């Protein structure tokens, strides 16, 4: 019997812990492209939106701080062409750790680059604090500052909670409140989320947690915690990041072959059926000719996919600056292969 299919672009979830009613489309467009892929990202984004995709995940940091300008241009062109209105889109941006104590400034810079009056979701990108270090040659802020020995450097007296305290205040601020519809965090673990919930100065609790999430890192414990707290989980690097290694997992091919669908459709359908949001990245506009549906996978297939990450969870995003965070341990190159 063939699987029931549904339109991917119609899958959405209601966010909790918000001031107004906010829905997030479950299928989004990731934009962590290389700095030399600005034009390609813009072209692919326009194709995605023309195909019905409404959720755009970006960040101040992406493309060395340049991607938001390309996205802003794409959005303006799509609006002028009559494809969408601003209100049709769900735009997420994030505060990078070098703006850890200047969240409102970061938001302002993103809004300007994106050419919009508000974002739908503002996230703290990492629970880390970096100093502001300027590149002598370009005059631009360095996203990942390192010392002369190549070690990441952190703000000595910084406390990551300050960033979310500030993001929380933006929502209540009469001057800035209308610039953000929902707030959240990224790369937090359960302990850090518990700290946010225990902090009485934080009145607006996170609506969203964005973390690496895919069949090899199924984040069961975090998802359970978030479900209890009304936090919607967005999975980043759903395909295992560059090169899409997840799509080569034999279990996904087997399930896909059984139903006559591609491993990509299997992964995306797994996310949607688990009430998660998924934000894969591509700069290939032609992909959006094929990406239309998700499928109602049988429970046994969902469990089989859940099992992949149970015995040997594998984290694909391995940033040296994150090694100070529990669970974000560095791998050697050999382990990485
Ligand atoms: N909050 C955070 O710290 C992070 C957030 N993100 C967000 O999540 C998004 C997605 O994660 P990424 O790490 O960028 O990678 P991803 O897991 O989406 O994989 C991207 C790779 O998959 C390939 N791909 C895409 N569609 C494909 C298809 N249909 N068939 C075959 N290959 C395909 C792409 O060409 C690219 O090489 C980012 O772009 C960004 O928006 C990503 C990393 C960290
Ligand atoms: O969002 C992000 O993207 C990069 C990796 O692609 C990662 O460092 C950051 O959190």
TrEMBL record:
Keywords: Oxidoreductase. One of its GO terms (cellular component) is cytosol. GO terms for biological process: acetoin metabolic process; carbohydrate metabolic process. Substrate binds at residue 125. The active site is at residue 62. InterPro entries: AKR (IPR020471), Aldo/ket_reductase_CS (IPR018170), NAD(P)_OxRdtase_dom_sf (IPR036812), NADP_OxRdtase_dom (IPR023210). The keyword Oxidoreductase applies. GO terms for molecular function: D-arabinose 1-dehydrogenase [NAD(P)+] activity; diacetyl reductase ((S)-acetoin forming) (NAD+) activity. This is Related to D-arabinose dehydrogenase [NAD(P)+] heavy chain.
